[in-house]
Structures are given as structure tokens and as C-alpha cells.
Target: ATP-dependent DNA helicase
Amino acid sequence: MDGYRKELAKVKNELKDVGEQIQQLLEHQDQLERRKHELEALFRQNSSKSAQEDKQWDRSDFPWSKELEDKMKSVFKIQTLRPMQLQTMNVTLSNKDCMLIMPTGGGKSLCFHLPALLSKGVTLVVSPLVALMEDQIMALLKFNVAAEMLNASTNKDTIKRVQEEMVSHNAPLKLLYVTPEKLAKSKRFMAKLEKMYQLGRFSRLVIDEVHCCSQWGHDFRPDYKFLGIMKRQFPQVPILCLTATATSKVLEDVKKILNIPNCYVFKASFNRPNLYYEVREKSGVQTEAMDEIYKLIQNQFPNQSGIVYCFSKKEADDVTTELTRRGIKVGCYHADLMAVERSRVHQAWLADKIHVVVATVAFGMGIDKPDVRFVIHNSLSKSMENLYQESGRAGRDDKKSHCILFYRLQDVFKQSSMVFTEQTGLENLYGIVAYCIDANRCRRSVIASHFGEVWDKAHCNGMCDHCDPAKQKSTQNKDVTKYCQDVLTVLDHAKRLDQRLTAIKVLESWMQKGPVNMRVKGVEAPSSNILTLERILAYMLIQGYIKEDFHFTPYSTISYLVPGPKAKLLSMGLENVTMDFFSCSNQTNGASPAASSSIHLEPKVKKSLPTTSALNPLKPKLVIINNERSAFSDMKFADSTVANYNGNKDNHSLTNGEGDHSTQKGGIIISDKRTGKKLKKRKQAIVYSDESDIDDMDFGANILTTKPNRAKKALQDKSYPSNSTQDTTTNADAIFLDSDSDFG
Ligand SMILES: Nc1ncnc2c1ncn2[C@H]1C[C@H](O)[C@@H](COP(=O)(O)OP(=O)(O)OP(=O)(O)O)O1
Model:
């Protein structure tokens, strides 16, 4: 026996060592990964080869340089080129393959419009959306540039005419737009292209939104894969690829798919200095969430142009109804609406007849309104690329504009059950979740590292909620290991009972709410607000301590939470989890999820202060306020007696609920405001607090407890009609308020 015991102790020790080593290695791996990204970016930006190449293509002494400048000014009325435009045009005019990554609105179109005018023959442009082509053709026709398009709904006469122009030396046609489907599915059209090529009239192939080729990208389109044969069929035709967003992984994939391994890659900076990035917490109550968006638009952007992006068509319909009811001129745009209605909304918005378009991502590519002052995300986007591209529709006129994302944990699962079948769907989604719950990193630096760029926080210029001096707040790194272990215990308990838990159910069990059999002995209800708990859960998810397990019903896909690959390390106590929290919570409205999830010295978690309106439903007979630390001390409780407790048991003041004070020496004397009578000794009073220093105070109550769950139990024992903490609070005879009180 002794031998076993010794060996067991030895094995446990070794396991502990191994765990610590694993943790160190994991941390080291994280650091190396980060450094690798930075070095790759630095390498790309500074390597002598790429610097030389940039210089080489920046020249103005090419045979076409003079004509290029003339046409730029005379046809497109543009005086100077933006960064990377000249390089790109010089490469493609040299008949070399090129890839340009430039942010939305950066001016990619000019990079093939202008070369098209300087080249003999026709530039073929593959573009994913008919609406996008229509917009471009309209703009080109205004500049008297001959452009056409072919798609599934083009009539026979037009097809015939265009196909004749493709192969006619005298035809004025300069740009021909087609959908990838047209290329992939029309053999006749491919035959015409062959002919055009043999006649030397196929001057260039432009592939817009080229990231659609790659399954690693955020908008994979299977028909884009077909473009892989173009280099083989037309080896002399230079390919120009354009996209606003592509990670290095996507770039490499695209090069492979299109057979252009040696193409030149130009990358304009992702940074849009005039865009202010912000994440705000979204209320769990639909009407409150709508009120907040309404107030935001009304107060900050009155009569200004903006877009509100929604997760689904139904959400877009609902938000449209809600905002219209509140008096904002909005139009709705999504794929289920008739084309005429979509076009009506788009045109009315362009003409400023309506200010806001509430839309799904269907309202996107090709939106070129210069004065969009705000883009609000009512729900989480599915990736950083999506967020960047969608919010990038703001501020094309280079004036300050706002990109505000409303975040709530429940939106993660709406998205995850849609994207989990995509190759990197969950990875991309968790990337944007990390962006949302980050407490202090510059938003731009998170975006930059996502796109593999080096970013110096100082360059943000206060243009994100974390760098804005007006929103200054300090953060503290706190240990949340115990919380994370408790979550895993809840999951283990459910597993033993053969139950599956969604995130909401996990939170419920963790907070000792919901079905009694799901609550776990030894797991104490955390004294923190729901937002903090959601944030910890989200962090566990993106770090791999928990993971999602998807199940199908005939109507939907449900995401359950189960222990993740790193769970073991945590439950064995071999890994510590720390998170950043704001050290003071002086923000209420508009705070980011991180901001409102401030945390005390563990294990206690602090929450944002509820507003007066949040407390209005509470009408207990007695309200005891911690005067020293509470922001509630100025609040009025019309139907309650208010006792101001200042941490000194012997000196308290009482008010009549309307703010008239009378100081009482020698302990609290509680009287009922309505009758003026002293509350009877042993009157029931439930006190919610974690403050241990009230433990031994005599409130004349026969129930005094310091934990909400114990209070609740006490209430249940006394047969109070309540099923939730909120109800018990409402029904309590007395509540204790300090800055940590929890109304979750
Ligand atoms: N050098 C320039 N100087 C002034 N304006 C320019 C210049 N180049 C382009 N523009 C204008 C034309 C458009 O109104 C606007 C956006 O250009 P555009 O080519 O549509 O952007 P883009 O194609 O990169 O955006 P998206 O990714 O949304 O398609 O900028």
C-alpha cells in the first residue's frame, strides 16, 4: 500500500511538472506565433527586394506614362494617384500578373479602368455581383468609356452584339464585365474568348474580389475555382487580382488556384485613419437594444447617412420596423426583397431621401456613397474580414466616421451554428470574438495583427474606444482560474446526468439558477454580473478550454458547450487563466463589453452600475446603501425607507426615500416610511451583499444573508413567491446596495 501511495504522489508530482512545462511551452508558442507574424509583415514591408520593386514600379518613365497621366486627368478627372495605384497600373501594363490588396474605397477600380483605355482590345472583368457591375458600368458610361456586361439575365440580342464586338477590331468596347458563373458555364462564351485571344484583343483579365477563390477566405464562391484554367488557356494575358481583404494564407491559396505563383503583390495599408472603431455592449432586451441604437443615431448622427448591418433577413426586418416606429427614416435591404424594392432603397439612400439602410450583408460590395458617417453592426459579423469590409463602407470621403459593433455572447452562437461547416468558419468567428472582448488593446492593432501588418498603437491617434483619451480607463490583469474551473465542473456534472448544455444553460447552472439538478454542489454562484460571466465564457471558448458541439434538429442547428482541448490542464489545476478588466467602472452607457465587466480582487467580480431605471421595479420597504462606495447614494426610492450605511456600524443616516437625511447614532433604526413606525424587531429583511462586514450587523431581521443564492433559499423556505433572483429582489423587504450589488 505504502509503495502505491509513494508512487501515486510521485506520478502526481510529475504530472504537475509536465503540466507546467506544457503551459510554458504553450505560452512560448503563442509568443513565437505573434513574433512570426510581426517578422513576416516587417519582411514584406522592408525587404530590400520588395522596396526595390516598389520603387521600380513607381516610375513615370514607362512608354505609357504620359498617356496614363493625360487620361487620368482628362477622362477620370483625377489629379493625383493614391498609394499603390501607379505601381499596380505599371505592372499590369507591363503584361505581368499582379495582385492588389487595398481597403474598401481605396481606389482599386481605377487600377484597371485606366489601363483598359491604354490597351488594345478588351479587358475582361470577373465580378461576383450583378449590382456591382451595373454600378461600375454606369460610372464608366458617364466618363464615356465603352463598357458592357454579360450575366444570366442578359437578353439574346445583347449577347450577340457584345460577342461580335469582342472579336471586331473596330469595336469601341473596352471593358466587359462577366460573372464567374458565365465563364464556368458558357462554352460558347469561352469559345469567343479563345477567338478574342487569337486576334490579340484579350488585353487583360481582372478578377475582382479575388478572395472568393479561396475556401480559406470569408466569401468563398465555388465558380471562382474555375478561373484556375484561365492562365493555361490564355498564357499571354496578364491577370490583375483585386481584393480589400486577404490574409497571407488566402493570398497563397489564390496564387495556387489561379496558377500565378510569381505574381507581384502590392498591399496598401489597411489603415483607414478617419474611421473610429468601437465595440459596445448590447442589451439582452430587444427593446432596450433598439432604444440604444435609436438614441445613438438620433443624438450622434442626426440626418446623416449610415448603415445598420444585421445578422439575418428577419433581424433586418425587425430592426427596420423598430427604428421606423421610433421615427428614423430607414429602408430595408436584403436578398428576399424584390430587386425593384432593393434598388428603390439604394437609390433613395444615395439621394439622401432616407438616411439609414438596415441591411444584411447583401448590401455590400460596390456601395460607393462617399458620406456614410456611421456603420453600426447590430449583431456580430462572422469574421474580422467581414467586419472590416462592412464597416469600411463608412467615410469614403475621408471625413471622420464611426464603426460601432454591438456585441453580446448570444450572437456568437447564432453565427457559429451557421459558419461551423465552413473550412475556417469557427476560427474566423473566434477571431472577431477576441476583438470584441479585448479590454485594452488598440482596436486597430487587433485588426492589423489579423491582417498580418505591423502596427504601432501610437498611430491610432485616439480613433478607437481603447485609445480615445475621452474614454481613458486603466485595466488590471486578474486571475479567473477558479471561475473557469467552475464552468468545467458544471459541464462535467451535466455530462454525468447525460444532459447537454447551451451557453445560456451553462450560465444558468453556474449562477445557481434554473433546474435544481443542474446546479453543482461546491460551485458557488459567482457574485459578478452576467456580462462578466459571458465574457469569461467567451474567453474560455476562444482559448480552447471549452468548445462548441453542434447538433441538428429538423429546424435548426444547436450549439452545446463541452470541455475543450485545454480543459484537462485547467481542471487538474495546472494552468492559470488571467484576463484584463477595467479597474474602475465609471462608465455606464456605451461601454464596451470589456469596460462594463470590471472585476474586483478575486474571486469577486464587479459589474457596471445599474441605472436608476433598472432599479425602478424594486420597491422594497428598506434600502440600505453603502454610502462610501456606492453610486446609488443619490438615488431616490419613493416607496422605501433608505438607510445610508457608511461602513461604520455605529453611525448611519436614514432618509425618507425622497432624500431628507437624519443621522442616527448607535446603529440603524429602521422605520417604515408609510406608517412612520419603527420596523418591528425581527422583521424580515433580506440583505444582498458580499460585504463580510455586514455579517454581524443587527438589522433587526430574522434573515440575514450575504449571498444572493442563500438569500434566495431563505426566501424559498419562507415561501416567498419567487423563481428568480430578480423576483426575489423585488419581493425582498430590504436590499443592500453598494457598487457591487448584482441585479443580473
Ligand atoms: N487617385 C484618386 N483620387 C481621388 N479619388 C479617387 C482616386 N482613385 C479612386 N478615387 C475615387 C473613385 C471612387 O469614388 C472612390 C472609391 O474608389 P473605388 O475604385 O470604387 O474603390 P474600391 O474599388 O477600392 O472599393 P470597393 O472595395 O468597395 O470596391 O475613390
